[in-house]
Amino acid sequence: MTSNDPISSQAADRFGRMVAARLETGADALDYEVRERLRAARVRALQVRKPVAEHTPILVGRGGAATLGEGLSLWNRIASVLPLLVLAAGLVTIHVVQNDKRAAEIAEVDAALLTDDLPPAAYADPGFVQYLKSGGE
Q1: How many CB atoms lie within 10 A of CB 70?
Q2: Whole-angstrom Cα distance, residue 78 to residue 74?
Q3: What CA–CA distance (Å, rounded) separates 129 from 63?
Q4: Where are the transmembrane segments (predicted)?
Q5: Inter-helix orientation angle 32-48/6-27, to 10°
Q6: Same-domain pairing of 129 and 95
Q7: In sequence order, what are the residues at sequence separation of 6 or more whose Cβ sits closer than 8 angstroms to the Cβ of residue 123?
Q8: Domain-located, residue 1
Q9: Are residues 78 and 129 in the same domain?
Q10: Number of domains the chain is built from
Q11: Residue 22 falls inside a structural domain
């Protein structure tokens, strides 16, 4: 039997009892040796039969940590907050480094504009853009 269905197991048990009762009625007419061999075979068959797993309800407590014997101790709180602090510190570090890089790039462009021979107002002139596109002729 491959099914764990309670109805099919009950039907199989009923069928087994019916067959056993039928065999018992004819067993009285048999010799003692034959009856003993049948009894031994019956005992072996019952030993081989798989035990039926019974479902027992499990009671679960409401206070999860309290039932485990663990409270929120100081070390547990530190261990739970520490990853968040490391993440926040990493984000702040990335922000500071990016701002420094951006400021250095802007300072480099400003220094190039101020040290050039052209005045900064020339870059805003639309005619200067046309002059650069034409190749400076």
Answers
A1: 10
A2: 6
A3: 74
A4: 78-97
A5: 170
A6: yes
A7: 113
A8: no
A9: yes
A10: 2
A11: yes
Residue type at position 94:
I
The single residue listed with the structure tokens 């067993």 is 27
Domain annotation covers residue 42: yes
Does residue 94 register a pLDDT over 90? yes
User: What predicted TM-score, i.e. pTM, was given to this entire model?
Assistant: 0.38
Structural domain for 89, as ranges? 74-133
> pLDDT (tens digit, 9 = 90+) per residue, 28-84?
778 888 888 888 888 888 788 766 677 777 776 655 555 455 667 888 888 889 999
21 within some domain = yes
Length of the chain: 137
For residue 107 the two structure tokens come to: 């300072």
Structure tokens at 101: 């890089």
Same domain, 129 and 78: yes
Given a contact cutoff of 8 angstroms between Cβ atoms, the answer to whether 71 and 65 are in contact is yes
* Phi, then psi, of 51 in degrees rounded to 5: -70, 140
